[in-house]
């Protein structure tokens, strides 16, 4: 059922509540923002990303991954990362550096269909992809 939320309600003033709600929404999607098929079949899939020593090539692979997303996923990711870039711009006040945002949002936005395999390698992969997108937003999402 459609729930009507009053965003003027005082409980939404705490940024942690809003961030938690956003993360929960993204985590509860039937498929993550980067669909399982893209996570599992990309040449970036762990451990491949770590094996790409050429940073330009690695960046091109991440851009290609984002560009290959279905339109709804791509457009949502563009808006979300534009917002996350603004969060990082205020890292002195909010203590949310690129690395912090990547740790918080990486596992929510990219995850394998199955939890089998090397979880530590998946976390490194998730964080690297999110960090790269944040650091190169204009290249990955040209207007």
Automatic annotation (TrEMBL):
The keyword Transport does not apply. Residues 1-141 form the Rho-GAP domain. Gene3D superfamilies: Rho GTPase activation protein (1.10.555.10). One of its GO terms (molecular function) is GTPase activator activity. InterPro entries: Rho-GAP, Rho_GTPase_activation_prot, RhoGAP_dom. Transmembrane segments: none annotated. This is RHG27 protein. It comes from Emberiza fucata.
């Amino acid at each position: 059922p459609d729930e009507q939320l009053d965003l003027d309600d005082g409980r939404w003033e705490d940024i942690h509540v809003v961030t938690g709600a956003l993360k929960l929404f993204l985590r509860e999607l039937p498929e993550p923002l980067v669909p399982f098929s893209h996570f599992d079949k990309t040449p970036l899939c762990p451990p491949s990303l770590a094996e790409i020593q050429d940073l330009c090539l690695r960046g091109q692979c991440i851009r290609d991954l984002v560009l290959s997303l279905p339109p709804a996923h791509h457009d949502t990711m563009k808006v979300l990362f534009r917002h996350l870039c603004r969060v990082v711009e205020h890292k002195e006040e909010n203590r949310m550096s690129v690395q912090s945002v990547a740790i918080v949002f990486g596992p929510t936005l990219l995850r394998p269909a199955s939890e089998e395999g090397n979880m530590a390698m998946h976390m490194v992969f998730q964080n690297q992809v999110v960090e790269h997108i944040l650091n190169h937003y204009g290249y990955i999402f040209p207007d």
